[in-house]
Design brief:
This is Major facilitator superfamily domain-containing protein. The chain is mainly α and 405 residues long. It is built from 15 helices and no strands.
Length: 405
């Protein structure tokens, strides 16, 4: 006797419900954070940290000293171009460095890091070797802004993405150690530049070749990761080395200040790794953002104190943002979250340098202190930054700051 259609339909509904529950159980078993185990150390895990450190030394090292490269390009390679036009080379470089992550992150989640790391190596090495022999604006734009920007984006995203697969409880410490690499490169490269003969193109070739050699050595270790234009004559762009030179009156001292700034960042990034594991990731980030906001209210007579305090605290929050992102998603989705976040950051980076240049011109025209407008803009940006993360923390954990989160 055949079952009625109602009975058959009911039976199929039950079976379908059972299948859905089984799929849910399987999915939970595979992706539930309670089922995922992390090595939290060991030879392979720390080898990944070393490789990621080398990757950030080679990529963020150049990013953190782009102001030095801007001075070299304006004085040696393209002295006939306005500072505004040259500034766009480095604005676009910074933009590409972050925006490419929107594709790199999901690709990393799907296929792992090895092929992408090799592509990043090839792009950055060819880009910086080509930069040493460039003579035209478009050549420098293509080699530095585009080719090196893409390569740096690959290495930056992958170096941070790999670490989260090996650490959870000690993720703050591991990520802080990795981010020290970017500050280490930021200390070394500004000190190389004053030694090189800026008036000689041969000196430029030697400078970039030395940097290429250093980067190649770093990339060999990074593989251990397992898994012509019309010039506008108004100064609409400003970069950090020019600001420091204006405040100090000496290019050599400006280079040294840049090295001091990045050295302080090394300390801040190491502190971040230890503090977040003790106090919580968002708690530490909010405190560091508050200190950054306060440090912007600086006195020019205490410039070195300002540089150290600001970079110490900004080094903290630079390291903490990727860690805080990891707290909002599953490990297997981290590449996508990281890439999406820093794609938005890329547009802020692209706009910030022209905005700062426009503020300088506007304030200078009024006869007031030249950098007043940019200082205010920086301070307000940090206030907005602080309020956003404060809102997230309160929304998730409330006002009880004794809770580690």
């Amino acid at each position: 006797m055949m079952p009625s259609s109602d009975h058959g339909s009911s039976l199929m509904d039950v079976l379908h419900t059972i299948d859905e529950k089984q799929e849910t159980l399987v999915d939970n078993e595979l992706y539930s954070p309670t089922k995922v185990t992390y090595p939290e150390g060991g030879h392979d895990a720390w080898l990944v940290v070393l490789g990621a450190w080398c990757g950030l030394t080679a990529s963020l090292g150049i990013y953190n000293t782009a102001g030095v490269f801007e001075v070299v390009v304006s004085k040696v390679l393209l002295p006939e171009y306005s500072q505004s036009t040259i500034g766009w080379i480095f604005s676009v470089y910074a933009f590409v460095n972050w925006v490419c992550g929107v594709q790199v992150g999901p690709t990393f989640d799907a296929m792992g890091p090895r092929a992408l790391i090799i592509a990043g190596m090839v792009c950055t090495l060819i880009g910086i070797f080509a930069l040493s022999v460039c003579t035209e604006y478009y050549q420098i734009f293509l080699s530095f802004s585009i080719l090196m920007g893409i390569g740096s984006s690959l290495l930056l995203t992958l170096s941070m993405g790999c670490v989260v697969y090996w650490f959870m409880e000690r993720r703050g410490l591991a990520s802080g150690m990795v981010f020290i690499g970017g500050s280490f490169g930021g200390v070394i490269f500004p000190l190389i530049d004053p030694i090189s003969p800026l008036s000689s193109r041969l000196g430029m070739v030697n400078l970039y070749s030395c940097i290429c050699t250093a980067r190649t050595l770093h990339y060999q270790r990074n593989i251990v990761l397992k898994q012509n234009s019309t010039a506008q004559r108004s100064k609409n762009n400003v970069h950090r080395s020019h600001g420091k030179k204006a405040l100090t009156g000496s290019a050599a001292v400006a280079y040294q200040f840049l090295a001091i700034l990045n050295a302080a960042s090394c300390v801040g990034r190491y502190m971040a790794g230890d503090l977040v594991d003790r106090l919580g990731r968002y708690n530490t980030l909010i405190v560091s953002l508050f200190l950054c906001t306060v440090s912007v209210l600086y006195n020019p007579a205490l410039l070195i104190v300002f540089i150290i305090l600001f970079r110490l605290c900004s080094g903290l929050n630079t390291s903490l943002i990727p860690i805080c992102l990891g707290q909002l998603c599953e490990t297997h989705d981290y590449g996508r979250y990281y890439a999406s976040c820093f794609t938005v950051v890329a547009f802020g980076v692209l706009a910030s340098i022209p905005i700062a240049g426009s503020l300088l011109n506007a304030v200078e025209a009024t006869g007031k202190e030249k950098y007043w407008g940019t200082v205010l803009f920086s301070g307000l940006s940090y206030v907005a930054f602080l309020l956003c993360f404060l809102w997230i923390r309160i929304k998730v954990k409330g006002w009880d700051w004794r809770i580690k989160w």
